[in-house]
Amino acid sequence: MNVDVLSVVALVVIIALFIIIFLLRKRGVDFTFTVLGALVVGVVFGVLFNGHTGWIMPIGKIYVTVLSAIVMPLVIVSILSSVTSLGSAKQLKGIGARSVLWLLLTNAVAIALAIGFGLTFGVGKNSYLSIEGVDAANFEGTLKSFSEVLIGFFPQNVVSDVAEDRIIPVILFSVLIAVSYVLVRQEKGEKVAVFKQFVEAVKDIVYKAVGFIIELTPYAVLALVATATSNGMNRSGMIWSLIVLLVISVVAMAIDLWGVNYVLVKVFAGLPPLKFFRKLIPAQVIAFSTQSSVGTLPVTTRILQSEVGVSPKVANFTAPLGTTIGMPGCAGIWPILVAIYGIHGLGINYSLADYAILGIMGLFVSIGVAGVPGTATIVTASVLTAVGLPLEIMVLTIPIAAIADTARTATNVTAAAVASAIVARGERVLDEDIFFGRKTFVAAGTGGDAAG
Question: What is the pTM of this model?
Answer without folding.
Answer: 0.68
